[in-house]
Each structure stands twice: as structure tokens, then as C-alpha cells.
């Protein structure tokens, strides 16, 4: 007769400081108070409950940014996850600050593949074994190579950046610790849903990985993807829902006997509130409201940024503001810099900071027309247009690109109404993150561009430019069309 034990595995990912609930008609949805209430309810009603977070607790809210993640860690301590892995945005405040925040956490943070290059020492514990009801549950953390992009200013920090290397590392840990009778193995990843599928296909079944809980791509699913016999799940983004596995574990064979998975809505109909966590959130909110509630400007109407892989209204507005202020020919604004789908019509400082939380410096580089075309062609590769979590850019006024996906060619590539000459040299503004990751973003190197002219920093703060320009004028508007025209294969 099989020895079966029940395990309930709750999971979140990409919460991005989504602390407060929102109204949806008469109902309230999301927010940490009801999320915590649901987790506490399950812990009190069910046996053998573990709550895991698959990265990106940080960024996305004023409360997080103002206190550089310290507020988030304190709030997360109240939420009480059993295990967390590192996401790329955990590194936004710097690696040293992340290690400080880890010391403030009352929960374990695992990551197997961030390391110091000189001696290959890991920055975090690579795994955690949680013992519950006589079962030993092994959690291993894996991070996307995007974290390495964030770490490039920290020259001593490295990562296993390929899936093959990550798979080898998983095998090394499983081979080492399966000998102590691990009953159940979970990969907590932050590499994106499609990459999770590829990783699962590389794993040797003898390593005993049972489940992959992922993040990074903000994927909402109706049911797990199963690859190589491994269920793969995500819980979208924010705190509007939580993933729930109800599993029966065969502790004789150290494997899943059966499971169900579903996404649980976090709303006032299903979830009680947690007054204790509300109190600490609102103590931080009171402080930030005093600073961030002042009105900066009023747009003609609400402007939107519904997707990062198309031209958008906010993308047009912000790229133009930076182009005009810095007097460059072209500004290529990272679409991922804009973190909310809408802004306005009344814009407070808090609204602006939540919408555009990254305060990078700006580099002036020089690109020939041929290099500019190459950079945009790299941006428009098929995987990006299919929604892969790659870098994409908003184009400033004056640049017009019409692209045909079927032939992978430009139908038009113009600047100020004229075809772009391959030999002409353009001044181009880039945020620091994208400058540091030139090969990944544009398939170009800084060395190649310096053959045209030496580059330099022309501003130490994108946010100061945008805020100052918005303060200077009311009733801004933007069309969100006419600069990047895409002829897609399936249209």
C-alpha cells in the first residue's frame, strides 16, 4: 500500500510592490491584506501548507522605491512566505543592497547561480530543505540572465547564463541531496514561462524534479504546462491571484501521486483581510503620501501603455521629452521602463514615479544609419514580437520605421521624412541599463559605436528631466501611432 501524504503549495511571483487592493465595481481585488488573509486561512484550515514566492517582490510602487526595498522586506516578513527566490528586480538597488536586505528578511532566500567570479562563491544558499509532516521538500532557486544585465556594473558578479548551465546546476544539487531521502523537489525559477519549458526538457528524470514554479514573464495560465513529466506554473503578476497546488506525495517513491492546480482570485468575496499587515502598509503610505501627492501636470486625457512590444502613447510622450531636452537626433526609450498601463489625466508625483520608477543616467552614443537599422532589426526579431520577455524600444519623434515580419525587412526607415542613409551618423540617447547591455539589446558593442565618436553621459537622471518638463506645461497629448508600423505575418 502506498504511503501518501498531502501537501498544499501556494505560490506568487512578480508581485512588484502591489500592496494595495483596487476597486472592480463593488468588489475589491488584490492587495497584500487579502492575500495574507487567504494564506493565513489556508494555513489554519489545511495541513502541510507551504507558501513560495518566485522572485520580483520589489519595484512597481512608491512605497518600495522610497524605502529602497526595506519597506517591502518588512511587509513580506508579515506575509511570512516559507521560501523565496531572487528575481531580476531584486537587484535593482544593487547587489550589495540586496545582500543587506537578505539580512533583514525573516524568510530564506535561495538562488543557485549568482556567484562571485573570482572564487565562484555563491551569493545565496542554493537550496533549502523544508521538513513538514515527516516529508523533506527540496527547493532550488534559478535566476534569468536578465539579473546579470543588472549586475554588469558590479564586475565581480556573475551568473550561469545559459539554460544548459542552469540544468547542470540543478543536477548537481539534486544528485548531492537526493541521497538524504528527499520526498519532493521544487524549482523556484525566474526565467520566464517559455524558458521554464525548455529547462524542464533538459532535466534528467533521475534528478527527481517534481514541479517548476516560475516568474518573470507575468504569465497567466488556466492549467499547468507539463514538460518531461514536470508541471510548470506561474501566477501572473501582482497580487490579484495566487497559485495553489493540492498534491498527494508518494513518500515511498519520492514523487507526486496526484495533484490539482488552480489560480485562486484574491478578492473580497473569497479572502479575509489581515489588519496587522494593513497597519504596516498604511504607516508607510502615510509617509509617502505627504511627499508624492502633489500634482505635477494634467494631460488632455488619460495616456496609455498597454503593451511593451508596440508603439504607445506614453512611450511617444516620454521618448519625445528626453529627445527634446537632450537635443539628440533619436531617443530609444526602453519599453520596460514604463511600468503602468495608463497615466493621467491628472498626474501626481506618485503616479509618475510608479509609472516610470527607473532613474537611470543617459548616455549619448553615435550610430551610423546602418547601425541604427541593425539595432532596430534586432529589436523586431520574431521572438520579441511573439511576446518573449526581451528588450523593446519606444521611438522618439522624427524616426519612422515600417517593418514587414514575413520578409524580415524594412518597408520604410526614415528620419524627418527622408530615407536613412547608411553612412549618416546619428546622435542617440540611451538609458544606462541599455547602454550597459548593448550586445543583448542591439547586437552592437560600445567599441563599434566609439569608432564613430566617443560617447558620454549627458544626464544623470531621466526622472528629473521628465518631471521638470511635465511641470513646465499642462495638457500634453500623444498619439501612440505613426512611428513604428508593424506588418505582422498573421495579420
Could you describe the 3D structure shown?
The protein is of the alpha/beta class and 491 residues long. The protein folds into 2 domains: 4-285, Purple Acid Phosphatase, chain A, domain 2 (4-Layer Sandwich); 293-487, 5'-nucleotidase,  domain 2 (Alpha-Beta Complex), CATH 3.90.780.10. Helix content is 30%, strand content 29%. It has 16 helices and 29 strands. The strands form 8 sheets. It has a 6-stranded mixed beta sheet with strand order 6-5-4-1-15-16, covered by helices on one side. It is globular, with a radius of gyration of 24 Å. The mean pLDDT is 91.
Describe, in short, the structure shown:
This protein is α/β, with parallel strands linked by helices and 491 residues long.
Key descriptive features of the protein:
single chain; 491 residues; alpha/beta; Purple Acid Phosphatase, chain A, domain 2; 5'-nucleotidase,  domain 2; 2 domains; six-stranded mixed β-sheet; 16 helices; globular
Tell me the number of strands. 29
| CATH arch. level architecture of the largest domain | 4-Layer Sandwich
Proportion in β-strands: 25-35%
- Major sheet strand order: 6-5-4-1-15-16
Tell me the layout of helices and strands.
Blueprint: E1 4-12, E2 22-24, E3 27-29, H1 32-45, E4 49-54, H2 62-66, H3 70-79, E5 83-85, H4 95-104, E6 109-110, E7 114-116, E8 127-132, E9 135-143, H5 146-150, E10 157-159, H6 163-177, E11 184-190, H7 193-202, E12 211-213, E13 225-227, E14 230-233, E15 241-250, E16 255-265, H8 275-292, E17 295-298, E18 303-304, H9 313-326, E19 330-334, E20 342-343, E21 346-348, H10 349-355, E22 362-368, H11 369-379, H12 382-385, E23 393-395, E24 399-404, E25 409-415, E26 418-419, E27 425-431, H13 432-436, H14 438-442, H15 446-450, E28 456-459, H16 462-472, E29 484-487
Parallel strand pairs: 1-4, 4-5, 5-6, 9-11, 11-12, 12-14, 19-27, 24-29
Antiparallel strand pairs: 1-15, 2-3, 7-10, 8-9, 13-14, 15-16, 17-21, 18-20, 19-23, 22-27, 22-28, 24-25, 25-26
Amino acid at each position: 500500500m502506498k504511503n501518501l501524504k498531502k501537501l498544499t503549495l501556494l505560490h506568487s511571483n512578480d508581485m512588484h510592490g502591489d500592496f494595495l487592493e483596487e476597486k472592480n465595481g463593488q468588489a475589491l481585488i488584490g492587495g497584500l491584506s487579502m492575500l495574507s488573509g487567504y494564506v493565513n486561512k489556508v494555513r489554519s484550515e489545511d495541513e502541510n501548507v507551504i507558501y513560495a514566492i518566485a522572485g520580483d517582490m520589489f519595484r512597481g510602487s512608491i512605497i518600495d522605491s522610497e524605502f529602497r526595498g526595506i519597506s517591502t522586506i518588512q511587509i513580506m516578513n508579515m506575509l511570512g512566505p516559507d521560501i523565496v527566490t531572487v528575481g531580476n528586480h531584486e537587484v535593482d538597488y544593487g547587489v550589495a543592497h540586496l545582500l543587506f536586505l537578505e539580512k533583514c528578511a525573516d524568510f530564506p532566500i535561495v538562488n543557485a547561480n549568482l556567484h562571485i567570479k573570482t572564487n565562484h562563491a555563491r551569493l545565496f544558499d542554493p537550496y533549502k530543505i523544508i521538513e513538514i509532516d515527516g516529508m523533506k521538500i527540496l527547493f532550488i532557486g534559478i535566476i534569468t540572465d536578465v539579473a546579470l544585465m543588472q549586475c554588469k556594473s558590479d564586475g565581480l558578479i556573475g551568473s550561469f547564463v545559459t539554460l544548459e548551465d542552469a540544468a547542470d546546476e540543478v543536477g548537481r544539487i539534486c544528485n548531492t541531496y537526493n541521497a538524504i531521502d528527499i520526498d519532493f523537489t521544487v524549482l523556484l525559477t525566474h526565467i520566464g514561462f517559455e524558458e521554464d519549458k525548455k529547462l524542464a526538457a533538459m532535466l534528467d528524470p533521475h534528478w527527481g524534479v517534481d514541479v517548476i514554479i516560475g516568474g518573470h514573464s507575468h504569465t497567466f495560465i488556466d492549467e499547468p504546462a507539463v514538460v518531461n513529466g514536470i508541471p510548470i506554473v506561474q501566477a501572473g503578476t501582482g497580487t490579484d491571484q495566487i497559485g495553489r497546488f493540492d498534491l498527494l506525495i508518494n513518500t515511498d517513491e519520492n514523487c507526486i501521486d496526484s495533484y490539482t492546480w488552480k489560480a485562486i482570485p484574491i478578492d473580497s468575496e473569497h479572502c479575509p483581510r489581515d489588519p496587522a499587515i494593513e497597519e504596516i502598509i498604511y504607516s508607510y503610505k502615510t509617509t509617502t503620501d505627504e511627499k508624492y501627492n502633489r500634482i505635477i501636470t494634467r494631460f488632455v486625457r488619460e495616456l496609455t501603455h498597454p503593451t511593451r512590444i508596440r508603439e504607445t502613447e506614453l512611450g511617444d510622450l516620454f521618448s519625445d521629452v528626453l529627445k527634446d531636452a537632450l537635443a539628440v537626433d533619436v531617443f530609444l526609450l526602453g519599453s520596460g521602463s514604463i511600468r503602468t498601463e495608463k497615466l493621467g489625466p491628472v498626474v501626481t508625483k506618485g503616479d509618475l514615479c510608479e509609472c516610470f520608477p527607473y532613474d537611470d543616467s543617459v548616455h549619448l552614443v553615435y550610430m551610423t544609419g546602418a547601425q541604427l537599422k541593425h539595432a532596430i532589426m534586432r529589436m523586431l526579431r520574431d521572438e520579441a514580437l511573439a511576446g518573449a520577455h526581451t528588450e523593446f524600444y519606444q521611438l522618439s519623434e522624427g524616426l519612422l520605421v515600417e517593418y514587414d515580419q514575413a520578409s524580415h525587412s524594412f518597408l520604410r526607415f526614415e528620419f524627418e521624412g527622408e530615407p536613412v542613409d547608411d553612412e549618416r551618423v546619428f546622435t542617440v540617447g540611451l538609458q544606462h541599463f541599455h547602454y550597459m547591455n548593448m550586445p543583448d539589446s542591439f547586437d552592437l558593442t560600445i567599441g563599434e559605436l566609439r569608432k564613430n565618436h566617443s560617447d558620454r553621459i549627458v544626464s544623470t537622471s531621466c526622472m528629473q528631466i521628465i518631471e521638470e518638463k511635465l511641470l513646465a506645461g499642462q495638457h500634453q497629448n500623444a498619439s501612440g501611432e505613426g512611428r513604428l508600423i508593424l506588418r505582422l505575418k498573421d495579420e
